[in-house]
Design brief:
This protein is of the alpha/beta class. It is 22% helix and 26% strand. The chain is built from two helices and four strands, in the order E-H-E-E-H-E. It has a four-stranded parallel sheet, with helices on one face. The protein is globular and about 35 Å long.
Length: 73
């Protein structure tokens, strides 16, 4: 059995990001997905959506804090 992780993913609405985020959620991990404003509905089901600008850390730093893993796509 895999230990459940807290994962923060940027690029979660892109080709690779959607696949990875979906897989992580299916495996039972807590996933927070950074998305740009207007793309909230593109995030895979089951993840926590964080609206922010991937080029401005101040818009998502508090949401990423405490994550076991940070994936930048």
């Amino acid at each position: 059995m895999t230990e459940k992780r807290d994962v923060f993913v940027t690029g979660s609405t892109g080709f690779m990001g959607r696949a990875l985020t979906k897989l992580l959620v299916e495996r039972g991990h807590r996933v927070r997905a950074l998305v740009r404003r207007g793309s909230e509905k593109k995030a895979p089901a089951g993840c926590e959506v964080v609206v922010g600008d991937p080029l401005d850390a101040s818009t998502f730093a508090s949401a990423a804090a405490g994550a076991d893993t940070f994936v930048q796509l």
